[in-house]
Amino acid sequence: MEQVEGAGKRKAPHVLTVAGSDSGAGAGIQADLKACGALGVYCSSVITAVTAQNTLGVQGVHPVPVDFVEDQLRSVLSDMEVDVVKTGMLPSVDIIKALCDKIKEFHVKALVVDPVMVSTSGDVLAAPAILDVLREELLPMADIVTPNLIEASALLGGQSLETVADMYTAARSIHKLGPRNVIVKGGHLSDSSDAVDVFFDGEQFLELHGQRVKTRNTHGTGCTLASSIAAELAKGSSMPQAVKAAKNFVENALRYSKDIAIGAGPQGPFDHFFKLNDHMDNTSEKRRFDPNDLFLYAVTDSRMNKKWGRSITEAVKSVIEGGATMVQLREKEAETREFVEAARACVEICRPRGVPLLINDRVDVALACGADGVHVGQSDMPAHLARSLLGPAKIIGVSCKTPAQAAAAFAGGADYVGCGGVFPTNTKANNVTVGLDGLRTVCMASELPVVAIGGIGAGNASSVMEIATPTLKGVAVVSAVFDQESIVAETRKLKAVLTSAVVNSAV
């Protein structure tokens, strides 16, 4: 009887991993299954080899006969609506050719190739003879290939790769072999304090920075990154979004698992399911970042509070009552102790109401008061450094005026960008405006959600929202609500204007 999808049924995003089995469950098929499961994606498997390995290394590899690999591929691809195929260890030329044939026969959205040749611990997992067929047949079919420095060197005939500049060159050279995207992983760079990866789509580079976690538990990081990219692609993410999300997932898992003790060898596995038992941050009391929270983003101003005789807590209470969906505390004049105390009081106001509270510039204050994150400018702390200090659960926004700045914010681990000033404003002296055209340009180029800021109020908010790009999520305002006799009334008025503009643009 044919299965028919009816009301209430939905297709699960589905990744097929074609790789070797790791008896120690740190890498290979086991890592892929765990990573996809942790990211909410169904994962099926085709096993190409069975290995005997543990934290000490690889003791043996037993390839699966090619005809049985073909049987596995046919069974899954013909029945289970695979979205993305991810490859790992492919131990023979015949297995690579069989895989290529099946991918041509059965349509999938994307192919992610992790060119496993040498494990992180140095064990050789594939014969050199497979390199030619990998380069000539599989890579031209790949949507992304994810080599580490050792694998990238092998793909390029033994080219020496020792610096970030070398990684740029390698990414460009590997792209010429045919894959649509390349990410060269810099985990083996000995002179880098950050974990640096270089992504290249054939036109633009992204240099992705993350915190280098000091731990022995790194077995399976390459498999996990590739399968996480596959999982995000299966869920509908763009390639840059998928790469960024995957890098963050691996970094967070390593950080959480850095002190786990499994096995006696030099390289242990890590916990893919850290989110189920995460003691790094009490995230159960907080909501995850929702781009829709940017809809009406209120930014406090100490001068305006002083002008109207209001405390910061009074201003925050009023703007939330009026309907603000996110609040940022921008206090340039307060002493640190005073600011921390006021910020803690504002956290107590915002959190029960489900309104995220961010601190402008001051990472130290955000940490001290338990705020939901920070917003930084171009001359402030870089996003990747703020992320390393705040951890994975906090929200980070970055002020941007250009697509290049938005791309850097994305690469640095930011959650959103604030674009402006859109119009002239009296809150920042000599602030260069970008206008509606500049805002549109950044929105069209940005991989992150965008909030427009600068001179926006009830009289011109509609013209901002009429840009109607998918990434523009709302407006950030200062004077329009805080330099007014009634914060509540002006916030409600502005929110009504924004809501009407969104409704009209959808018609």
TrEMBL record:
UniProt keyword terms in alphabetical order: ATP-binding, Chloroplast, Kinase, Magnesium, Metal-binding, Multifunctional enzyme, Nucleotide-binding, Plastid, Thiamine biosynthesis, Transferase, Transit peptide
GO cellular component, one term: chloroplast
Domain annotation Thiamine phosphate synthase/TenI: ranges: 296-481
UniProt keyword ATP-binding present: yes
Keyword ATP-binding: yes
Compartments, as annotated in UniProt: Plastid, Chloroplast
InterPro entries: Aldolase_TIM (IPR013785), HMP/HMP-P_kinase_dom (IPR004399), PM/HMP-P_kinase-1 (IPR013749), Ribokinase-like (IPR029056), ThiamineP_synth_sf (IPR036206), ThiamineP_synth_TenI (IPR022998), TMP_synthase (IPR034291)
Domain called Pyridoxamine kinase/Phosphomethylpyrimidine kinase: residue spans: 22-266
GO biological process entries: thiamine biosynthetic process; thiamine diphosphate biosynthetic process
Pathway membership, UniProt: Cofactor biosynthesis; thiamine diphosphate biosynthesis; 4-amino-2-methyl-5-diphosphomethylpyrimidine from 5-amino-1-(5-phospho-D-ribosyl)imidazole: step 2/3; Cofactor biosynthesis; thiamine diphosphate biosynthesis; thiamine phosphate from 4-amino-2-methyl-5-diphosphomethylpyrimidine and 4-methyl-5-(2-phosphoethyl)-thiazole: step 1/1
One Gene Ontology MF term: ATP binding
SUPFAM superfamilies: Ribokinase-like, Thiamin phosphate synthase
Reactions performed catalytically: 4-methyl-5-(2-phosphooxyethyl)-thiazole + 4-amino-2-methyl-5-(diphosphooxymethyl)pyrimidine + H(+) = thiamine phosphate + diphosphate; 4-amino-5-hydroxymethyl-2-methylpyrimidine + ATP = 4-amino-2-methyl-5-(phosphooxymethyl)pyrimidine + ADP + H(+); 2-(2-carboxy-4-methylthiazol-5-yl)ethyl phosphate + 4-amino-2-methyl-5-(diphosphooxymethyl)pyrimidine + 2 H(+) = thiamine phosphate + CO2 + diphosphate; 2-[(2R,5Z)-2-carboxy-4-methylthiazol-5(2H)-ylidene]ethyl phosphate + 4-amino-2-methyl-5-(diphosphooxymethyl)pyrimidine + 2 H(+) = thiamine phosphate + CO2 + diphosphate
Major subcellular site: plastid
Required cofactor(s): Mg(2+)
Family classification: Belongs to the thiamine-phosphate synthase family.
HAMAP family, alphabetized: TMP_synthase
Function of the molecule: Essential for thiamine biosynthesis. Bifunctional enzyme that catalyzes the phosphorylation of hydroxymethylpyrimidine phosphate (HMP-P) to HMP-PP and condenses 4-methyl-5-(beta-hydroxyethyl)thiazole monophosphate (THZ-P) and 2-methyl-4-amino-5-hydroxymethyl pyrimidine pyrophosphate (HMP-PP) to form thiamine monophosphate (TMP).
Protein name stated in the entry: Uncharacterized protein
